[in-house]
Amino acid sequence: MTVRLTTLCDNLAGSVGYVAEWGLSILVQYKDEAVLLDTGGTDSVIRNAIQNGINLNQITRIVLSHGHKDHTGGLRHLLQILDAKRQVILHPEAWASKYASRAEPVGSEMHYIGIPYSKEELEHLGAKFTLSREPVWITDEIVVTGEVPLQTSFESIDKNLFVKIEGEYQMDTVPDDQALVVKTSKGLVVILGCAHHGMINTLQHAQKITGEERVHAVVGGTHLFRAGPDQLEQTIAALEEFNVAHIGVSHCTGMPASMALMQHFKDRFFFNHVGKVMEF
Prior knowledge:
By secondary structure, this protein is of the alpha/beta class.
């Protein structure tokens, strides 16, 4: 049995007719489940699904990797066209009032980047929210990681992310960052949203909660677009230790990091983009 991944939102479009935007959404199909990880920032998921001939009503549930609007902004559009209510799995801190500082010094020019809709509005449209800090097992083989511990010495949280609490800005450690994992006969297929807690930390956590040491594939946003040479070198070394067979990066990876991964992993590497369909 194969895992089928279809990218419905990403920064890059793979061919004519698809819509690209800064965001991410990947449809994960395995056996009887069709889980949508993230919803992009606007209605791009719907438009790209139509282009790809995909009926979004096959979605059995939705997982939100974290509470940033480029991963959650499309949820309202999606709920409006679905034929029934859907379970939406997310960390409770995804509802925090999230901001990013986009100027120097850090802490100036705050921009709201959180979920752009109220919980009540989305529930009215058919969302049945499951809030959990711990792993959520969808089936015996599909799991949402829950909180990812920070363990490596070379991965860290961006310093320009904040939450607004009682009118004051505080550093956001992004505890809501999580991923989706499918346990297969060849090892784990790990689908990343943004990997704010680090791609390697996420893979290590996936191994721990599943009891499976083999990592067959990792796909999605790796948050390496700000990584320096040392972090890239240590990330590549760690991926080699995992002996990952397929590495497909997109969204927040950035071109320099993507090129470094491509040059090192060669045919084990692929660009993930809107319209890309992969089976593992």
